[in-house]
User: What shape does this take?
Amino acid sequence: MKPQGSDTGKIRKLAVLSCLLLCSVLLGGCWDRREVNDVAFVMGTGMDKEGDQYRVTMQIALPGQLGASGNTGGGGGTSGTKSYYLESKIGPSFRGASAEEQRGVSRTLNYSHRRVLLFGEALAREGIGNMMDVLARVPQNRLSSLVVITKGSALEVLQADAPIEQYPAEMVRELNYSYMENPRSIKLLLNTILLDGIDPAVPVMSLVKNGPANLKDKKTNIQVDGLAVFRKDRVTGIIDNHLSRFLLLGMNQAKNTEIFVLPPKGKGYISVDLIENKVHIEPNIRGDEIRMTIHINCNGNAKENETTFDISKEANLKWLEQQVAEQIKKELGEAVRVIQQKYHSDVLGLGRVIITSRPDEWKRIKPQWDRLYPKAEVTIDPVVHIENIGAITKPFGVKKENIQNE
Assistant: This one.
């Protein structure tokens, strides 16, 4: 008669072996695989309105053409072979047009690598909220994709040569990061639309030729062409390039704002690059009278002095700082007037400041905010400090007796 312990050991070994076999059955990890050759990666999407239909244009990467720059660069390269192709269809909605595109593409469209989402200006002025649902509902869509408004149709911008990048969508993305401190992603745009007391602002981009008419082998390129300001989900206006630089300063979103100052005497300009800015908005509310003070502290460097004015002297440097501050006060004040009275867009978040600092007051004035906002008195209070005037102190190439010290 065999000992009972021996039978128990065999049973345990059999149980462990059965568990291992069961685990191996559950580890069939490749049953739903999707080969790269069966997927089409969408790098950028453009949306336009055509009558009562929506046109959706997708920029799809061609991996086989993504060679070294100079051989098959985006927009054509030297060989004329593009690293992408465009698929464009119309439908009754964003998703409807996308479904039409899938019928014309032999591979499964994949949106997980989409970098940018472009809205044509005409569509954006009608409102974009009703077509954003699918972007959040389908997990594959990246909410980190950057949003841009285009002058003209989004289709035209996505057709740009953009020879410096592999494809136009990548150039749009890089321009966003060089234009704003915190570019507007889908997630940030939607959050701003849903928040009280603040409206979105999104970069505007357009096509431009890369040289004069007589230049050979001209290419179409993409450039930042201002800032689109919203009222909730609808674009109400576009701030031009000049004023948008100062508006971004007030939004605490400016990157390397450059300001040009005329000297006290003579010709030329002194260029000051603002490299670090901090903004604080202070509310003052008495009844229906709302006063907002925008305090801006700016640090900058002198980048160029093509005048005879000596900025190495302390008094002259103080004068230059004051001139830069005065220009900020004037231009930002004009930008604020435009968004308040013409476009009724609170991209500076003045209402949001009241919500966070004076919540009781906001509850009182919230029903009247649309009427009170355009009448709010906004004061600009800039302070500028120039930290560095460069490797040379006096105007370069100017004789000592010609240098202006006063």
Summary: The longest helix spans residues 314-342. Confidence is low (pLDDT under 50) at residues 68-80. The two ends are 117 Å apart (CA to CA). The domain at 241-406 is CATH 3.30.300.210 (GMP Synthetase; Chain A, domain 3).
